[in-house]
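sry for the spam today, last one i promise. C-alpha cells for design, 320 residues
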C-alpha cells in the first residue's frame, strides 16, 4: 500500500472507532448513586441534564494516532415514574440524548479533526425492588426507614441515534444493547448509604458497520461491570434526605469487537472511573444535581473528564 493510501486508510479507521467511544461516554461509563433507593408510589420526575466531556482518547496502540482528544456535550431529557409491580416498588425511566462534539488527532504526522451533531441512541430502564422496599404511598413512605434494599433492573438502548454506514463517525451505534443488573443498597445509621451494583452488557450485531470498500457486519462481545457508591445525608426533612453527597466509582471489562468474523483482541476493555456527586434541593419540587468524574485506570476507552449538571422537577400522582 502506498503512503497516501495507507494514510487515508488509517484516518478512516481513526474516525470509524470514535462512535464506540461516544457510546461508552454516554452510557457504559455512567455513575449513578442511589439507583436502587426506592421512592413513594406514583412519584414522577422530569430531568434536564447537560453533560460536558473533555480529554484524551486512548486507542491502545491499535492505530497510529497520537494526541487524540475530544470535546463534546450531551444534553439529555428524561422522564421517571414509580409504580407497584406485584406489590414491590418499581420504576421506569426513559431518556433521549443529543450529542454535539469535535474530535481531533494526529495521524501519520497530519492533523485531523471532525465535528458531529445529532441524536444519540435513546433508552429506558426498568427497575424493581426484590426485598426491603414494598410499594408505598407517600403517607406510609414518610414513616419507612431503609435498612437493606435489594433490586434488579434492565436497561435497554435502542438504535435510534444518528447513523449512516457511509459516514466515518456517527452518534448512534446501529444495534440494540441490553444491561441486566443486580443492585444492593444499605443505610448505616441516619446519615450513610452504601450502594453496590453488578451487571453485564449484551449487544446485537451491527449489520452495516463502516468499512472500506463496503460496510461489514460487526459484533461486540458482552462485558461485565461493577459500580459502588458511598453517600452522606447532610440534611434531612421528615427523616428523608434532601441534601446529600456521594463518592462514586466503577469498573468494567470485556467488550471485544469482531469485524467480518475476525476478532480484534486489542479492543477488549479494562477501565474504571471515580467521581463525586451532590444533590441540592431548590424548592419542594425542584432539585439540582451535579457530578464530576474522571478516568482512574484506563486500558482502552479514553482518560477524559466528565462534568454534568441536571435540573429535576418532581411531583406525585397517578397518570390519567
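last one done:
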Amino acid at each position: 500500500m502506498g503512503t497516501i493510501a495507507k494514510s487515508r486508510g488509517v484516518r478512516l479507521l481513526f474516525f470509524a472507532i470514535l462512535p464506540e467511544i461516544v457510546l461508552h461516554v454516554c452510557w457504559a461509563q455512567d455513575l449513578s448513586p442511589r439507583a436502587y433507593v426506592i421512592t413513594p408510589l406514583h412519584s414522577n420526575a422530569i430531568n434536564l441534564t447537560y453533560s460536558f466531556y473533555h480529554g484524551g482518547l486512548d486507542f491502545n496502540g491499535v492505530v497510529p494516532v497520537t494526541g487524540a482528544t475530544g470535546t463534546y456535550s450531551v444534553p439529555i431529557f428524561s422522564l421517571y415514574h414509580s409504580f407497584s409491580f406485584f406489590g414491590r416498588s418499581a420504576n421506569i425511566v426513559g431518556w433521549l440524548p443529543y450529542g454535539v462534539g469535535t474530535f481531533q488527532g494526529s495521524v501519520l504526522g497530519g492533523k485531523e479533526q471532525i465535528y458531529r451533531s445529532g441524536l444519540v441512541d435513546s433508552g429506558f430502564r426498568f427497575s424493581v425492588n426484590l426485598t426491603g422496599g414494598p410499594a408505598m404511598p407517600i403517607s406510609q413512605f414518610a414513616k419507612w426507614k431503609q435498612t437493606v434494599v435489594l433490586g434488579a433492573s434492565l436497561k435497554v438502548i435502542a438504535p435510534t441515534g444518528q447513523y449512516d454506514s457511509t459516514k466515518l463517525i456517527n452518534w448512534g451505534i446501529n444495534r440494540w444493547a441490553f444491561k441486566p443488573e443486580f443492585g444492593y443498597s444499605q443505610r448505616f445509621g441516619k446519615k450513610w448509604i452504601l450502594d453496590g451494583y453488578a451487571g453485564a452488557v449484551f449487544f446485537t450485531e451491527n449489520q452495516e458497520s463502516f468499512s472500506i470498500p463496503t460496510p461489514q457486519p460487526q459484533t461486540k462481545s458482552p462485558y461485565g461491570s461493577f459500580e459502588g457508591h458511598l453517600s452522606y445525608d447532610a440534611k434531612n426533612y421528615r427523616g428523608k434526605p434532601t441534601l446529600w453527597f456521594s463518592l462514586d466509582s466503577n469498573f468494567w471489562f470485556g467488550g471485544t469487537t469482531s469485524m467480518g468474523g475476525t476478532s480484534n483482541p486489542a479492543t477488549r476493555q479494562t477501565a474504571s472511573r471515580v467521581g463525586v456527586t451532590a444533590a441540592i434541593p431548590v424548592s419542594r419540587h425542584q432539585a439540582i444535581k451535579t457530578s464530576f468524574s474522571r478516568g482512574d485506570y484506563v486500558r482502552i476507552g479514553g482518560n477524559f473528564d466528565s462534568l454534568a449538571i441536571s435540573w429535576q422537577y418532581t411531583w406525585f400522582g397517578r397518570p390519567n
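The longest strand covers residues 65-85. ok im logging off now
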